[in-house]
Amino acid sequence: MAYLGNLTCRECGLTFTARWGSFENADEYRCHHDHVVHVEPSSGTVLAVDGDVADGRTLVQLHGLCPVCRTELATGLLPSCPVCSGRDHQVLLSGMIG
Ligand SMILES: [Zn+2]
Ligand SMILES: [Zn+2]
């Protein structure tokens, strides 16, 4: 399930609109720099990196690191704040996708 909503940063107070979460056949991973990587759940194949089609490598081949900046990828992260990069937000959901 992917979500759309307003996030209010608890660090700096900024409110911004974002989309996050996983689709049925694409788990969402985020790195420290908030690059979004979609991964096919059964094979571990990277489908897309920040919206661009990926080169077919798997998470294992990438050692669980972001193909763009080589920092560690994790699931279930909220988008980071565009101002202070904090990830602690108050969430106001406005919709769900998929
Ligand atoms: Zn912030
Ligand atoms: Zn990255």
Mind explaining what this structure looks like?
With 98 residues, the chain is an all-beta fold. It has one domain (2-93). The chain is 0% helix and 41% strand. It has no helices and eight strands. Strands 6-5-4-3-7 form a five-stranded antiparallel beta sheet, with no helix packed on it. The protein is globular. The model has no long low-confidence stretch (mean pLDDT 95). The protein binds zinc ion (ZN) (2 copies). One zinc ion (ZN) binds at residues 9, 11-12, 14, 81, 83-84, 86.
In short:
The chain is mainly β.
Distinctive features:
98 residues; mainly beta; 5-stranded antiparallel sheet; 3-stranded antiparallel sheet; binds zinc ion
List the SSEs and their pairings.
Layout: E1 2-9, E2 15-21, E3 27-30, E4 36-39, E5 46-49, E6 52-53, E7 74-75, E8 89-97
Antiparallel strand pairs: 1-2, 1-8, 3-4, 3-7, 4-5, 5-6
Bound molecules: zinc ion (2 copies).
- Structurally, the number of domains stands at 1
The percent range for strand residues is: 35-45%
Query: What is the count of β-strands?
Result: 8
Major sheet summary line: 5 strands, antiparallel
Mean pLDDT: 95
**Oligomeric state, counting identical vs distinct chains:** single chain
Kindly provide the radius of gyration, computed on alpha-carbon positions and rounded to a whole number of angstroms.
Answer: 14 Å
Low-confidence stretches: none
Bound molecules: zinc ion
Helix content: under 10%
Shape: globular
Structural class: mainly beta
The number of distinct helices, counting runs of at least 4 residues, comes to: 0
Strand order within the widest beta sheet: 6-5-4-3-7
SSE succession: EEEEEEEE
